[in-house]
Amino acid sequence: MKRTILLMSLFAAATLGSAAEITYDAPGKWTNLRARRKYQPEAKEDGVLAVSGSRRLFTDPAVPVDPEQKYRISGSFRQGGTEPASIYFGIAFYDEKGRYFDFANSNAVPNSDTELTAAAKKGDTELRIKNGTGWQKFKGTAIALNTAPDYSDLPNFNLIRIPIQSVTEAEGVWTVTLSKPLSADIPAGTALRLHRPGGTFYAAANRKLRKRWLGFESKIFSGITKGRGIGDKGLFPRGTAAFRIMIITRSGPEKENAVEFKDVKIIEE
């Protein structure tokens, strides 16, 4: 009896200590998330999936985030035809409402929180702000509205994506000049912040493929940042409630230019 109990205890300890895996080895486990133009990979032999053309695929369904859990993603890819092909292999993040978000929604620029001092009307190309000292490196940024200094608004989906031409100060008045007119009114007193643009937060691979299989694995990521929305040191970005694996393929439209992949999985440790 003691021997049996000991063996059962050892088995339970080994089971708890092993990593769980969620595998994505069938076409039905992938989606492009577009209701009008559904696309799924083609199943081939030995668990290999293939796509042709430039595609954006997501694992389905999204995986809820446990802040105490550690995660990695891994997979193998190769050029499936005669023409060059490449892939982006990474992670897509979703908030509690199921909305996808990326750097533009979450990558807040430090010390750029301010407010609109005068109402801006639809068609205006200038914004009057209280303080623009944190807005000097403005190239490629978006303007987030209705922000909070403690970043509790992240991810922020209320963005002005019009490029900024200049940020100037004269006699204590800061003016932000936009390259295009506003599409809506913004009332005075609205809180504003700069956000840097970008893609997804974690990439396991972003490269050209070869005829032979290439295996890729992400770093370990776990927990959710309490500061700005970007992922830092393996943390999920602020506001993350779930995630999916995302694959972007770049190849020609014919099957001769296909991207093939296998053993794609989420590893829970």
Write the layout of secondary structure elements.
Elements: H1 2-17, E1 20-23, E2 30-31, E3 42-43, E4 49-51, E5 55-59, E6 63-64, E7 71-79, E8 86-94, E9 100-101, H2 103-106, E10 114-115, E11 126-129, E12 142-145, E13 159-160, E14 164-170, E15 173-178, E16 191-195, E17 203-208, E18 214-217, E19 242-250, E20 259-268
Antiparallel strand pairs: 1-20, 2-5, 3-4, 4-20, 5-19, 6-19, 7-18, 7-20, 8-9, 8-17, 8-19, 10-16, 11-15, 12-13, 12-16, 14-15
Give an overview of the whole structure.
With 269 residues, this protein is mainly beta. It has a domain at 80-202 and 224-239. Helix content is 7%, strand content 36%. The chain has helices spanning 2-17, 103-106, and strands spanning 20-23, 30-31, 42-43, 49-51, 55-59, 63-64, 71-79, 86-94, 100-101, 114-115, 126-129, 142-145, 159-160, 164-170, 173-178, 191-195, 203-208, 214-217, 242-250, 259-268. The strands form four sheets. Strands 2, 5, 6, 8, 9, 17 and 19 form a seven-stranded antiparallel sheet that branches. Strands 1, 3, 4, 7, 18 and 20 form a six-stranded antiparallel sheet that branches. A four-stranded antiparallel sheet has the order 10-16-12-13. A hairpin with a 2-residue loop joins strand 14 and strand 15.
